[in-house]
Amino acid sequence: MKRILITGGAGFIGSHTCVSLLENDYEVYLVDSFVNSSPIVINRILSICDLNNSNLGKNLKVFKGDLKDKVFIEDIFSNADKSGNPINGVIHFAGLKAVNESVLNPLRYWQENIFSSLNLVSVMKKYNCNLLVFSSSATVYGKESSSPIKENSYLNPSNPYGNTKLTIEKILNDLYDENSNIWKIACLRYFNPIGAHTSSLIGENPVGMPNNLFPLICNAALDNNTKLKIFGSDWDTIDGTCIRDYIHVSDVAEGHLKTLEYLNNHKTNILKMNIGTGLGTSVLELIETFSRVNKVTVDYKFTSRRDGDSKEIVADNSFSSSLLNWIPKRSLEDMCIDGWNWKKNNVNGF
User: Fold this and answer.
1) Residues 186, 133: Cα–Cα separation, whole Å
2) Do 139 and 159 form a contact (C-beta atoms < 8 A)?
3) In this structure, what DSSP letter does residue 17 have?
4) How many C-beta atoms lie closer than 10 Å to residue 326's C-beta?
5) pTM score, two decimals?
6) 39, 68, 279, 295 — which has fewest CB within 10 A?
C-alpha cells in the first residue's frame, strides 16, 4: 500500500483529496497545524469513509504540527522509515492563501509559505522521498495573459500570495535540475475550486471573513440582509462582470489522484499543469445558476472595480486532460447544488 503524506490535509482541497486517496486504497498521513482549519474535519473524513467502506478509515493517520518546525517533519519521516513502510510521496497543500491578506501582510506570507516548503523538501530529500505534487495557483500568471491561459503563458503574479507560489515553483525547478534523474514533481495551477463533497460533510470553511466569491454567494443566500458586492459592471465581457473558470473541488481532488498515479508510473519529470474546466462563467452567470438550481434569492449590488482584477481568467486544460486522462466531469449546476447543500447543513461551519 502506498503511503502518501498530505500537508494541509484538513483544508478545503486537502480534505477532499484525502477522501479520494483513501477511497483508492492509499494510506494517508494527514499533516495540519489546524490554524486555518478545524480538527472536526478529521471526523468528517472518517464518516465519509464509513459511508463507503468502514475499513477505509484505518488507513488515515493524523499529525498535528507546523511545517516551520523541521524536527516535527523529520520525526514523521523517520518513524515511517523505521516502520519498514516509508513515505512514498507528498501532496503539499499547506500554506496561507488569501490574496487580500497577502497584500496587507506580505512578510507573513513569505515566512509561512516559503520557509515551510523549504523545510518539507529538504526533509524529503534526506529521506529519499522524491515524489511531490505541489498545490500552486493560477495567480502565478500575469494580468497580461489572455484566456484561455496555457502553461507557457506569461508568469507575473500581481500579489504576494501569487509571488510565493511562483517562488516555490522556482525552488522546485532548481531542486529538479540539481538531480533530474531522481525527482518526480508536478505543480498544479488551480483556477477556482468551488462546491463540496456530495455528502455535505466537508466543504469550504474559511476562517474569518471569506474572500472568495462562492462562500460570499452562500452567505448572501442565507441572509436576506446581506448583499453580495460585485466589483465592476463595466468589464468588456458578455454582461459586464468578470469571467472565471470554476471547477468542482471533487474534480480537483481526482486531478491530484491522477497526477500521483502518473508520477508513480512514469520516469522522472517536473510538470506544470492547469487544473480547470476550460469554461468561462461570469459573476452574474454564477449567481443566476446558483439561484435557479437552489431556488434561492441572492441580492447583490455593484461597486467599483478592485485593483488587480482581470476581466477573464480561464484555463486551457488540454495538457493536464490529455496527459492524465482526466476530464472534470461535474457541471456548474453540480458545484452550486453541492456547495449550497454543504452551507445549509453547516451554517456555522464545523
Assistant:
1) 5
2) yes
3) H
4) 21
5) 0.96
6) 295
Q: Which of 26, 141, 161, 246 is catalytic?
A: 161
Mean pLDDT of the chain: 94
Residue holding cell 525527482?
183
pLDDT of residue 308: 74
Q: What are phi and psi of 6, to 5 degrees?
A: -120, 110
Tell me the pLDDT tens digit for each residue of 134-193.
Answer: 999 999 998 778 899 999 999 999 899 999 999 999 999 999 999 999 999 999 999 999
- CA-CA distances (angstroms) from residue 85 to 25, 132, 262, 285? 15, 18, 21, 49
The pLDDT score that the predictor gives to residue 213 is: 94
Instruction: Say how far apart CA 252 and CA 258 lie, in whole Å.
Output: 10
**141 - beta bridge partners?**
155
What is the C-alpha separation between 168 and 300, in angstroms, rounded?
37
CATH architecture for residues 3-195+247-276: 3-Layer(aba) Sandwich (3.40)
Residue 324's identity, in one-letter code, is L
| Strand 89-92 with 131-137, pairing | parallel
Enter the C-alpha cell of residue 197: 463533497
Domain ranges of the chain: 3-195+247-276
